[in-house]
Design the sequence.
């Protein structure tokens, strides 16, 4: 019988207007990998933030290694052996890996000076001990996400963590990096007898890595199971509280004529360095072309060049047989393109503006919304917005509230609702479900496929490989701005993962 | 003609003037570097300097000693720093507004107090800070003339540049300070409250700007206070901070550059209208800021924060 590493007893956490955790009682055993799953806003992160001392629970008790936590702050939690790798990395970009690892527990010389040589030595020693190779002298801002995550893990190990919390650790990793991470997790559990708690959306990962799994829904822990006894369907149903029917997306019709063609496109990034190097693509009516790429391999610049947000260096973009290369975004939209941008907060919505105004954006000059060409017909706008609001199942406090007050998933639905309502024959969809919960993902996916079945040409770009697999008719992999592979029919994850890291270059 | 102008420009006197003009800016820039690292945009340095200048003279006049004046400046520096942090850190007010308010408040307060206490907007002839003579330094030609016999705070500034540089880049507290500005949540999850570092930075800034003011009134002008005597040095210091990316050593170099052009301006007054020469340091500041904008735009572009300018 394994002893208990962490024990939550009737823990509740109330934020103004939200009960984030509702009477959670949970034991996590020493030396196990425990997966915590649930939709966005189910309270997983809150529960872990309590364990890490960021929040003090409004009610209930927390025990770490048998000691009751009375003083909730990260320093205490770290002292009790808890380490947490946050979803958004807690690293100072300009600091070196070694500096980040030792931050707040720096080795010193002469009591007041920072001993950077010792910091580097300790960082390297830890890296070697756990097989987490990383250059201690490079500013972490220059490291890949995978390496940054290593630095995060090393940081917790440096602080003597015995209980490691990983919040959505694989969201930003390639399949290969994910495999490496899992190998590390297995090793620390086996060799160092650590306890690992992993928060994730991806159910197959739960099955791959965990010993037990806890499912949360609306702040409550709805069940804890041995991983061996469950499958993805069961977990998904537990998460949303109703039977989930995955893979019911029905694709119909055959691809028609070519609507979007990209010829030998080269684009420079904001530093002036080549980001896209001679990419050629073609998307036909009634098909989804998926781009699988690790972040920072030119997909953002490619999309910016197609949509007119960035001027390509060379090459052509053809939209419905019209050359739209280098036109401004408005002109390209008018030529029949709609765009769901990758960063909904930066370019997708105006957070301060109302939901209605956001839904209207792009149509604000249409005669039906204006009187005398300048007077906004508010009631018409709101009627129009409310109709989209209903149709796209946006859940919030109505069309008059600021878009920024919506949850991530609902904000994304606003973007989808607006862009999909233009009836543009070509859709560019980037990261459509990033940070969106399972229920909303299902809805957004069905909308994308509906558009496909209606005969739209869709270019999909996502860091979530499952999504690319699920929606695409064809897939291209992009690595360092070049197409490294094209796949049709049955996709193999390994093969595509290899294309995403340029590992198949010799073969191409 | 040109020869005389040039020889007058590149004389020991000019470089000595450069040191004197640079020092108040440099001291304030050291303070500004602290708040900058802590992620606080501090445009209130001008007011902080003015307060230092006034309270230095007030203490010197009241107690009859420049040392007492400096002591009063240090006390006021801490108070001003606490006041600044109370609004920017604790109440999270808009830093720009608080900085502006501080400048306006300092101008009003010092003028009001000066008129109430001294009867006019200014005072002079109060006990001043000593100049320092280093024996033997005169033996070095030119350099000796430039470096020797300066007001005490010029030498103090050199020590402070070194100390602040070591503090920022060679101590754990410097790491925390920089982390508190760049990624506060990271510091918090590491178990150090970033607010603590921000408070500390504000207090240090209040102290250093106070010293800048004290140098101006008690050192450079030998016990003189005049209304608005900071004369925008706080803004020039801010420019030095931004230009140097808050590196104390580079900020000092930037302040020297300002001092150099200020000194040239004073020299050229013999030949050109002083109204015109007086603009030189500010023109240089503008050039510095243009450079900074270009640099930061490049950086923003790198970070992808800005849509690129459309070419052609």
Sequence:
């Amino acid at each position: 019988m394994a002893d208990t590493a962490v024990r939550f007893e009737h823990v509740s956490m109330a934020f103004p207007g939200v009960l984030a955790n509702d009477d959670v009682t949970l034991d996590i055993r020493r030396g196990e990998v425990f997966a915590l799953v649930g939709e966005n806003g189910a309270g997983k992160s809150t529960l872990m933030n309590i364990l890490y001392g960021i929040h003090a629970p409004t009610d209930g008790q927390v025990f770490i290694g048998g000691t009751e936590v009375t003083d909730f702050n990260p320093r205490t939690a770290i002292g009790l052996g808890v380490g947490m790798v946050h979803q958004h990395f807690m690293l100072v970009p300009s600091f070196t890996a070694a500096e980040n690892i030792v931050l707040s527990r720096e080795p010193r010389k002469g009591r007041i000076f920072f001993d950077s040589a010792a910091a580097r030595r300790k960082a390297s020693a830890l890296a070697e001990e756990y097989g987490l190779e990383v250059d201690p002298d490079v500013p972490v801002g220059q490291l890949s996400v995978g390496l940054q995550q290593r630095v995060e893990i090393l940081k917790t190990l440096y602080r003597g963590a015995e209980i490691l919390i990983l919040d959505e650790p694989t969201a930003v990793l390639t399949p290969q990096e994910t495999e490496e991470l899992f190998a590390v997790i297995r090793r620390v559990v086996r060799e160092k007898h650590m306890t690992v708690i992993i928060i994730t959306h991806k159910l197959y990962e739960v099955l791959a890595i965990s010993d037990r799994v806890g499912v949360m829904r609306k702040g409550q822990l709805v069940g804890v199971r041995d991983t061996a006894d469950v499958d993805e369907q069961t977990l998904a149903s537990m998460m949303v509280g109703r039977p989930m029917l995955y893979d019911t997306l029905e694709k119909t019709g055959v691809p028609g004529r070519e609507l979007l063609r990209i010829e030998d496109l080269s684009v420079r990034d904001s530093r002036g360095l080549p980001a896209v190097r001679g990419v050629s693509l073609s998307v036909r009516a009634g098909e989804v072309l998926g781009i699988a790429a690790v972040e920072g391999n030119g997909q953002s610049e490619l999309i910016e060049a197609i949509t007119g947000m960035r001027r390509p260096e060379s090459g052509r973009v053809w939209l419905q047989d019209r050359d739209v290369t280098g036109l401004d975004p408005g002109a390209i939209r008018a030529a029949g393109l709609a765009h769901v941008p990758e960063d909904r907060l930066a370019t997708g919505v105006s957070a301060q503006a109302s939901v209605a105004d956001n839904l209207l954006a792009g149509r604000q000059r249409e005669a039906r919304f204006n009187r005398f060409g300048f007077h906004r017909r508010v009631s018409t706008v709101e009627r129009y917005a409310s109709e989209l609001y209903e149709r796209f199942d946006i859940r919030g406090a109505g069309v008059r509230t600021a878009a920024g007050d919506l949850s991530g998933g609902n904000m994304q639905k606003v973007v989808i609702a607006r862009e999909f309502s233009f009836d543009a024959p070509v859709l560019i969809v980037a990261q459509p479900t990033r940070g969106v919960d399972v229920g909303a993902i299902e809805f957004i996916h069905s909308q994308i496929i509906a558009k496909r079945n209606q005969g739209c040409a869709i270019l999909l770009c996502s860091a979530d490989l499952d999504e690319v697999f699920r929606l695409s008719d064809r897939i291209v992999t992009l690595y360092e701005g070049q197409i490294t592979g094209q796949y049709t029919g049955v996709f193999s994850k390994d093969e595509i993962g290899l294309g995403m890291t340029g590992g198949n270059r010799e073969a191409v | 003609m040109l020869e005389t102008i040039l020889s007058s420009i590149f004389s020991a006197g000019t470089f000595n003037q450069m040191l004197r003009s640079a020092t108040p800016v440099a001291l304030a820039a050291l303070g500004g570097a602290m708040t900058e690292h802590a992620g606080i945009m501090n445009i209130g340095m001008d007011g902080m300097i003015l307060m230092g200048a006034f309270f230095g003279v007030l203490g010197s006049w009241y107690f009859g000693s420049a040392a007492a004046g400096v002591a009063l400046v240090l006390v006021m520096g801490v108070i001003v720093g606490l006041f600044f942090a109370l609004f920017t850190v604790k109440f999270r007010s808009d830093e720009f507004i608080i900085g502006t308010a501080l400048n306006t408040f300092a101008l009003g307060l010092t003028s009001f107090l000066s008129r109430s206490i001294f009867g006019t907007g200014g005072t002079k002839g109060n006990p001043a800070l000593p100049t320092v003579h280093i024996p033997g330094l005169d033996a070095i030609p030119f350099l000796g003339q430039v470096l020797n016999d300066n007001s005490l705070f010029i030498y103090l500034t050199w020590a402070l540049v070194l100390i602040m540089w070591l503090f920022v880049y060679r101590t754990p507290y410097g790491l925390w300070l920089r982390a508190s500005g760049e990624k506060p949540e990271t510091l918090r999850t590491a178990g150090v409250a970033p607010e603590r570092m921000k408070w500390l930075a504000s207090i240090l800034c209040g102290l250093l700007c106070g010293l800048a003011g004290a140098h101006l009134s008690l050192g450079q002008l030998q016990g003189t206070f005049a209304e608005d005597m900071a004369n925008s040095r706080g803004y020039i210091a801010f420019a030095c901070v931004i230009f140097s990316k808050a590196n104390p050593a580079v900020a000092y170099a930037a302040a020297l550059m300002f001092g150099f052009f200020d000194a040239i301006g004073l020299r050229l007054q013999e030949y050109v209208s002083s109204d015109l020469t007086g603009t030189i340091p500010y023109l240089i500041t503008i050039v510095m800021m243009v450079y900074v904008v270009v640099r930061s735009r490049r950086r923003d572009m790198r970070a992808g924060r800005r849509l690129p300018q459309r070419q052609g």
The mean pLDDT of chain B is 90. Chain B touches chain A at residues 166, 170-172, 174-176, 178-179, 182-183, 185-192, 298, 300-304, 306-308, 310-312 (CB under 8 Å). The beta strands of chain B are 131-132, 150-151. Chain B has 14 helices and two strands.
